[in-house]
User: Which sequence fits this backbone?
């Protein structure tokens, strides 16, 4: 577990837009993890980018199974970094996938 503490100002500094019928709030800027999080990239560099992005209010991270290089390594790197720095602050939504409206929410977004 890391000693990272997110900026308390992170949501005040970013513009968020509502999307879809349920009004999901997404930041005006997302962080794409295409070539900066692959197997050949330094994990510490990726960690610093994720922390800075999160501190600036970026809560949407673009990943794909072919991002790397090699393909798929960006997802693995992101997972390792996220688990170490952020996972302790994540709580499942009330009801999670068992919530009565989960399917409707997912389909309407």
Assistant:
């Amino acid at each position: 577990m890391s000693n990272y503490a997110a900026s308390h100002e992170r949501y005040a500094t970013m513009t968020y837009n509502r999307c879809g019928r349920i009004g999901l709030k997404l930041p005006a800027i997302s962080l794409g993890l295409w070539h900066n999080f692959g197997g050949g990239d330094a994990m510490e560099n990726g960690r610093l980018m994720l922390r800075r992005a999160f501190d600036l209010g970026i809560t949407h991270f673009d990943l794909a199974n072919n991002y790397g290089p090699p393909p798929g390594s960006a997802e693995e790197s992101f997972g390792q970094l996220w688990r170490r720095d952020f996972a302790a602050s994540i709580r499942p939504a009330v009801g999670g996938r068992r919530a009565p409206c989960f399917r409707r929410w997912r389909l309407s977004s």
